[in-house]
Design a protein that fits this description.
five-stranded mixed sheet, globular, 161 residues, alpha+beta, homodimer
Chain lengths: 161, 161
Amino acid sequence: MHIRLATESDVPTILSLIHALAVYEREPDAVQLGESELRRDGFGPQPLFECLIADDEGEAAGFALYFPIYSTWRGPSIHLEDLFVQPSHRGRGIGKALLERVAAISIERGCGRLQWDVLDWNTPAIDFYRSRGAVMLESWRIMRVTGAALARLAKSSPPGT
Amino acid sequence: MHIRLATESDVPTILSLIHALAVYEREPDAVQLGESELRRDGFGPQPLFECLIADDEGEAAGFALYFPIYSTWRGPSIHLEDLFVQPSHRGRGIGKALLERVAAISIERGCGRLQWDVLDWNTPAIDFYRSRGAVMLESWRIMRVTGAALARLAKSSPPGT
């Protein structure tokens, strides 16, 4: 097993892993991005994310996709957006190795915090993360405004307030 | 009331607003940043966040601090890290105006999603956000590894896997 930083030629692989994770998260139709968007957003002059790929027996067995965020309590931090290992490659420590590598990158970059989101029914993942030193923020919830609702909210903003 | 983009000279004001928000969130000692870190992180050559300040009757009445994030389902998005209005300036639509302005900035930058975190006991905030078109992701929880636990996790990463 070998972990490496993804390059532009990995875009089709990354997209197929993103789709596989969406299926696992019971949202098979949620992915609205294609290869051209991933290429533009991840491999242009100002990348919006970085991605690690774990190769295992000649296949892309899993991936970790992350980007910098900021905490007004702690300073520069890293958000792990996706961490996924193909079912046929599980039980070999690949997820653990990917998470550890993202933690090492966080430390290298002076980030004192690494965080990510988890589905509350995904007990195996939660137990795994806790065994690696993570804590769940029990009282926090994520809120989101998207698409047409976001456009409506934006339009309410009076120019030049 | 007037909303404007913060500049470097606002750093002391931003820090005092961050402290006021931490008190409201019942974590008065959580802020580990000082003015020099905020200056470095927000107002250097590669800023990690942007900040809006709402001036009201000659005072900094509130702020919104945000930065770009990435969704592997939706693409470029904005995370609103902090939104806060000083208690003495509430009830005048300042929080609403700040949220709308961040939504407008999201749309201008081609982001199809704006999101933020909320404490589950903060019912007035949750009701306000819902009234503006936001939805709560009921099943998602935030996990985090910080400080010494993050350093331990990083050290487990074998070089050159």
